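Box 3.1 A note on notation
Throughout this textbook, protein chains are presented in two layers. The first layer is the amino acid sequence; the second is a token string describing backbone geometry. Keep the layers aligned when reading.
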Amino acid sequence: MRKKIVFLLALALVLALGMVLFVSAGGRRWGRPARPWAMMDGGKGLIETLGLTDEQLTKLKEIEKATYEKIKGLRNELQDLLFAIRQLKLTKNPDEAAIEEKMEQAKKLQEQIRTIQEDRWEKIKSLLTKEQLEKLATPRWGRRGGRMGPEPWWF
């Protein structure tokens, strides 16, 4: 009986210490910032790291705003389509043809969004100098290339 009590107290102590360590790390992985885009290159921001000029920054803001305006409606439409697909699937006898039609529409919207994002990245690349592009190509910065698009993760 005494061994069980000692074991349970030791276990409680280990769990308590683990929770304290987790909370002190801010809920993030050890050695990594909670938000990597906020801590680029040792805490420097994108502007300082790449040495963006005021003109580059102004043009970058314009590109971002234009892209946002183009994609905003498409994303809303895509969300509506995905919701409609879920609703169609939540019936006893789902209409497979209707589901397939909606899925094709969703694929077309996703492709439109991707094309706009790729166009955005090409415009951003045209703003940057050769040296700035070289900084982006380093392994530290890398490229995402995942489902959100071909650009680096901070653009």
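The chain has six helices and no strands. The CA atoms of residues 81 and 106 lie 6 Å apart.
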